[in-house]
Amino acid sequence: MRKNPVERREEIVAAAARLVSERGFNGISLKDVADEVGMSQPGLLHYIGTKEGLLSMLVTDSYDTSGTPDDFLQSGLPGSDPETPSFPAYLRFLVRHNASRRMMVQMYTILQTESLNPDHPLHEYFSNRPDSVWDHYSRFPWRIPPQMGSWDEGMRPVVRQCIEAMDGIQLRWLRKPPIDMYDEWLAFERMIFPSPMWDLYR
Q1: Fold designation for 5-59
Q2: What ranges do the domains of the chain cover?
Q3: Residues paired with 143 in a beta bridge
Q4: For residue 197, what is the enclosing H or E element?
Q5: Among 38, 84, 95, 151, which residue carries the largest CB count within 10 Å?
Q6: Per residue in 64-119, pLDDT tens?
Q7: CA dihedral 55, 138, 135, 116 (to 10 degrees)
Q8: pTM of the full predicted structure?
């Protein structure tokens, strides 16, 4: 039975993510991806345009579009009130989400490491990531302790530390022996959002 475009895109993303997570972006070819999904290279190019287009499909169209603050605000979970959402609660939501998509996290980690090379097509994306994450999170009315001042005044270094801690925890989680990513995050959460100041804002 012929697959519709949405099914084909999902199939391409899954196959490419698996290949990149194993070999890196520089270690795969479009033929590898086409063979993995049983397509011709021209057929694959119809969906991705170029090899760089495949990266866009993997990162900006897939990885970056799930586990978002908007997803959290629609979840109904504790702390997800759209009027006064809890930032630590959102991060716990994000950690749980990432723990459920190991292959995508491994792919993202591999790409982040490869992008240290200035010639990598995602070099600028990852170089700008702290600023882009900050800008995105700043769109939401997070409830924070008054001691922090306003979001813009006090939270930028905290957001940076959260990104750094999460990147490190995910890398350790991908290694053996395994750790529980959520439990590990909770240990860092207590340091980044210390008691008693954050007790009512978690």
Answers
A1: Arc Repressor Mutant, subunit A (1.10.10)
A2: 5-59, 63-192
A3: 86
A4: none
A5: 95
A6: 999 999 999 999 999 999 999 999 999 999 999 999 999 999 999 999 999 999 99
A7: -60
A8: 0.93
